[in-house]
Amino acid sequence: MIVTDLDGTLLGDDEALATFRDWVGGRRDRLRLVYASGRSVAAVCELIAAGRLPEPDAVITGVGTEIHVAGTGGASGWRPWPGWLERFGNWSADHVREALAGYPGLEAQDPVHQTRRKASYDTLQLEERDLAAIRQALARRGIPARLVYSAGRFLDVIPPGAGKGPAARFLADAWSLPAHDVLAFGDSGNDADLLSAGFRGTLVANALPELDAVVDGDVYRSPLAFAAGVLDGIRFWSER
Length: 240
Ligand SMILES: [Mg+2]
Prior knowledge:
There is one protein chain. This protein has 2 domains: 2-86 and 162-238, HAD superfamily/HAD-like (Rossmann fold, 3-Layer(aba) Sandwich); 92-158, Hypothetical Protein Ta0175, Chain: A, domain 2, CATH 3.90.1070.10. 30% of the residues lie in helices and 19% in strands. The chain is built from 7 helices and 12 strands. α1 (14-25) packs parallel to α7 (226-238). The structure holds magnesium ion. Residues 5, 7-9, 187-188 line the site of magnesium ion.
């Protein structure tokens, strides 16, 4: 199983991406391909429909709040993976958006980036104590939450238990794959849990220091960027 972030990981070098497409094309029946992105399912679907990305088996979107089984006929042909969304009960990002309206330094992103289970903000450099204060403000309103901060400017508030790492683990379990049969790839803070989930991880060369700082030693740091780094990571782990 290959589970890879899109922006800044698989996307960023079109030539290397074409090589990745060919590589996957020759092995499609022998691997599970999963995209794990902060984007919406509709946006990921568009990239696939445009022929830029190989058809996956499943997509993890909204920073691990949603999992869809890939189907045909565009986003309408994709169906939610049974049992994932149900884990979050009645947790609603609307409550987060209400609670954090007007919170200093947080600017809500455009509605197109907001979903039922993810409240997203643009923000300037946040320190750990700022994140703790936001978590406290939510807790005071009775809202448990996971804060995912990346690229020094994007804050996603998601339900506890959501995230790219937990979602990828859920899929690996569904397909009865042990963690060492899963290769994971990422470049920024919202990939931290994916690369700390016990999988065989690879950081592409352009990975941000924020990710490098939080993942443990058991990852491969490729000297190559974007999709070339993904292919290099596949080679590296295949030889182990
Ligand atoms: Mg990324």
